[in-house]
Automatic annotation (TrEMBL), chains A, B, C, D:
It comes from the Bacteria. Gene3D superfamilies: MazG-like. InterPro entries: dCTP_Pyrophosphatase, DCTPP. This is Nucleotide pyrophosphohydrolase. SUPFAM superfamilies: all-alpha NTP pyrophosphatases. One of its GO terms (molecular function) is nucleoside triphosphate diphosphatase activity. Keywords: Hydrolase. Pfam families: MazG-like. One of its GO terms (biological process) is nucleoside triphosphate catabolic process.
Amino acid sequence: MLADPVMTQLQAFVAERDWDQFHSPANLAKSISIEAGELLECFQWSDAGDAEETVAELADVLTYCLLLADKLGVDPSDIVLAKLEETKKKYPVETAAGRSTKYDRLSD
Amino acid sequence: MLADPVMTQLQAFVAERDWDQFHSPANLAKSISIEAGELLECFQWSDAGDAEETVAELADVLTYCLLLADKLGVDPSDIVLAKLEETKKKYPVETAAGRSTKYDRLSD
Amino acid sequence: MLADPVMTQLQAFVAERDWDQFHSPANLAKSISIEAGELLECFQWSDAGDAEETVAELADVLTYCLLLADKLGVDPSDIVLAKLEETKKKYPVETAAGRSTKYDRLSD
Amino acid sequence: MLADPVMTQLQAFVAERDWDQFHSPANLAKSISIEAGELLECFQWSDAGDAEETVAELADVLTYCLLLADKLGVDPSDIVLAKLEETKKKYPVETAAGRSTKYDRLSD
């Protein structure tokens, strides 16, 4: 189970402020995109981002991801591992190693 | 600590394929935005997203978030909890409860 | 041709500040995503966005789109019309009318 | 006025398919973010994107931008020029030339 103490604290934070009403899956998905854009902004003009700001923005993306997982009733660790199994098949080591090519072009 | 077994498996997956060379913080930040867009697509025309697809796309966003945390040498749980402390101050229960107003307008 | 007066003014603005050095296609693509996130923020918790802010953020997205078109040496009007021709084939009126279904599922 | 022939064709395309019902400002804002992510994907692992794909994805972002401008009853050229005037003040040539620094840090 991923970070139960974290989820418990996030749930308490949300409940205290009566914010669950705003946390539809759609609104959380929008929030994840919005925070992802703020994270990307750390690298807007350069490949070297400020470490502190990058960590802060990453924390925001992760927070909304955990809230969405909770809303969907899934465990973040479980879904990452499940997806990893699928990805291993799409990108077999033999053909994918050392290449950033997308899976649908691996045999080009 | 957030999901050590997950991080260990992700690291093995990346190492096997010699993909670490592509995982600069900048490239991982771009990847998070890209996957966030695919997650958002589940809700493009409707507030009701297909549950299975939403979970799959959320898993992708989370995966890249974990890879970035690892690359930055931070623990995902720790940074989420640290950010939560800051957010509690920006949104005190007394003024923020039940309102989706952004913190810089809370006293309007 | 799309808004030559606009492109001329944008080019002058960029040249005056010696900013072309930052306007690689990759950096402009990141900028478009970043501004798209700020536009989306107008609708983060509600379907009703503030009109003034929405227009301001849309202007930012459009600005970077025009800069990227210029950098790629293409005319925005031309590429939109060219893409429209392709999209008409993917979404024939007979099957697509009144439905938001993505083209690869239209015959489900 | 920006590309009236383009807007006229886009409006006809949408009307023929009875798609205006899906084009709330919120849905169009989501669509812009989604397409921006697909554009960004051209540069996910490298600063060199495939020219043809980049143009195609940029066309998609622009298309949704034009649809949103139309929905909001504003002219794309006008709002870009209006925003440019504001940006000129935030980034005076004297302090901003040759620097990618954000306006709130220009005098650091």
